[in-house]
Amino acid sequence: MREITKLLQGNKAWAEEIVAREPNFFKRLSKQQTPEYLWIGCADSRVPATNLVNLDPGEMFVHRNVANVVIHTDLNCLSALQYAVDVLRVGHIIVCGHYGCGGVTAALDNLKLGLIDNWLRHIQDVMEKHKTTLAAISEKEARMDRLCELNVIEQVINVCQTTVVQGAWERGHDLTVHGLIYGLSDGRLRELDIRVSSQNEVIPAWENAISSLTSKAETLREKYA
Ligand code: CO
Question: Which of 80, 112, 139, 225 is the most buried (most CB within 10 A)?
Answer without folding.
Answer: 80
